[in-house]
Amino acid sequence: MNARFALPSLVLTGAVVALAGCVPNAPSGADSVTVTATDDGCTLSSSEAPAGTLVFSVENEGSAATEFYLLASDGSSIVSEVENIGPGLTRDLTVQVAAGGYFTSCRESDNADAVPVAFTVTEAESDVPVDEEREALLNQAAQTYRAYVQQEVAALVIATDEFVAAYTAGDDDAAREIYAPARIHWEAIEPVAESFGDLDPSMDLREADLAEGEQWTGWHAMEKDLWPPLDYAALSVDERQALADQLVADTAELSARVNADDFTFEAFQIGNGAKELLDEVATGKITGEEEIWSGTDLWDFRANLDGAWEAYVVLKPAADLTDATLSTEIEERFAALDAELAQYGSLEDGFANYSELTDDQVVELSRLVEALSESLSHLTAAAIG
Amino acid sequence: MSERHGVSRRAVLGGTGVAVGAAALAGAGFATGRATASPMQLRHYDFHGDHQSGIVTPQQDRMHFASFDVITDDRDALIGLLRSWSEAASVLMTGSELGTGIAGGSPLAPPDDTGDATGLPASGLTITFGFGPGLFSKDGVDRFGIANKRPAQLIDLPHFPGDTLEERLTGGDLCVQACADDPQVAMHTIRNLSRLAFGIASVRWAQLGFGRTSSTTRAQDTPRNLMGFKDGTRNLKAEDSDNVNRWLWAERGDGQDWMAGGTYLVARKLRILAEIWDRASLGEQEALVGRTKGSGAPLSGGNEFTEPDFTRPGAGGEPLIRSDAHVALAHPSANAGAMMLRRGYNYTDGADALGRLDAGLFFLAFVRDPATQYVPMQTAISSSDAMTVEYVRAVGSAIFAVPPGVAAGSPLGNNGAYIGESLFA
What we know:
Chain A contains 11 helices and 11 strands. Chain A has helices at about 130-170, 170-185, 190-195, 200-205, 220-225, 235-260, 265-285, 295-320, 325-340, 360-375, 380-385, and strands at about 30-40, 40-45, 50, 50-60, 65-70, 80-85, 90-95, 100-105, 115-120, 345, 350. In chain B, strands 3, 4, 5, 6, 7, 8, 9, 10 and 11 form a 9-stranded antiparallel beta sheet that branches. A two-stranded antiparallel ribbon of chain B has the order 1-2. The radius of gyration of chain B is 22 Å and the shape is globular.
């Protein structure tokens, strides 16, 4: 079997195309092919289907996990796939296909016996999006977003150095001044940083997330030290230095990882990242929990939004192949939220402290976040098609 | 504890109350009753028994839970409350009104029973009492002379990663869990027991629950929680007597003999970030849970009751069930074999100030030893279960020792037996 079978999937397990505003798994009018997998291989209910949206409904009647691939005419390049179908389970693979010759395969990636079977997609009456175009757009998106992440991390390294210099020198006023602007470079790429499960807790853990007896390090430990509550015992010079050294080392490690040759993105990660950035706003910033000592939540809010906008922009061309009205809706909702947030400041001029917002103002921001999040949650499926 | 059928709610004393059979009541569509009563609502359970009701009892669909602060230092007053609670519980569980009911008393005094459940069947009501750490000593003060009887198993729960507890939703010196198949019956119980407690104990916090999120017997279907997934598939069931004895009931020799036949209750109020969960893709939701949303089958294959296979490989050799999936972290195999009996409920408190659904899971677990059966599992889930970390917030938390039941045949009342008697003996 071709080595490409070992590549990570571009499609989430069980992912289906969910057009914005559409609830059904299988778009109406889609042709459907039933694939029955057994320990001996798989049987398709049909060996051909018309071009357009096609649903392969894969039932695993075998005793081991299986996966199903739609392969291009060369018999090895993966057009789309659904993995990890446990015994007794059924998964749908929804793809948009142009007319032409394809192959299907129903085996595990390392099974040398798997022989792809020809599958023909016949001409449809109307034009359908061509997968090659989508694939090129997604590849472009991944490269652009990777560069954006590297740029933000480079800025984070510089800003972190400035911050810890002031902090360890005991220049608290300067450190307080730099804290929020430095963190925007972290917040803008938060889902990427969080994907490194060891670095995120070391760098960004909030006090409430500590386990009993756990050592607290990172930005928020220094935040509390700079904006101390009443009963707080200030850190010693050595303790400050230890926190600073750890943060600088962690940031350097983050930089090394995002600049490594094997650091790559897939489109679904970008789209999900955009949604997660809004989730961050909805769960932490809108409630004032993220920056509980400094009250600089609106800086993080702005940075999360900017990161989500970047992710949206790179995926928009591919998403538009599926549903251009989705991007119109997303842009309108970004604009509405931008306008609301602009009342409270900007990255250039600084933001109001979170505690200055009235309940009504927080509610209004929250409503706009919910609306944008709802639209962004359909972006990944639209972009992948 | 046995199950009986067909007892109506009627006046215990007096005779001026209208005594009506449940069947007749149902047929007549009695003004304060339900138009029809299901067989479930006609069930009732005995108050007496080696163990308290409401633990291995087939889990009812509704709950009203209340945690109380004891506001007196008078040991006799506390014992008096436990006596009156025990007697009242035995009456309420038969579906009867308290005291002289709603119409049998003096016209110049408030009725003994608030009356809001009059005309309703027993509805399978169970009442379970528990003692919090504060009953044994509070702020270092041994108010009732029982500090040396605090069981080692009644630990102070640690702070779990991600806890965003609201002080007003934590702790308590006493608790009452009222479960029934009619929410009004459950609420009536807490309302009337609170009334009996005025001046001795006051409600610290309370929770209404609807829709059980676990099954405690094999005859019950697996319900769904507010995340839309089947919950309680692998719960410890009443029929698993070996495991129930091993993992649920305290025995003599566990440390405090007065707890023999009792157990420990951990209550956690877990808010679900519903709007955000609802925007997660189906693939992500299933991967986080480790089961399919439709059938509840583990992702390693089979049907709902197939044992998950955490090693069965999928694409690229990675297990079909992620190691940080909820089912992987909560499974006994990840917790030194430890099991627990869960009696969770869905809850909603309406909407929050931002218009978001204020709802989630009111998690109740009964275990013989919280330190070994609950804390390690919760620590793993709070720090590594991606579903919990991303989509669930713990806002309330409490722990209670649940004493044994009152022996069959024991008289109740002023000089009679009561829940917790062995503690004060």
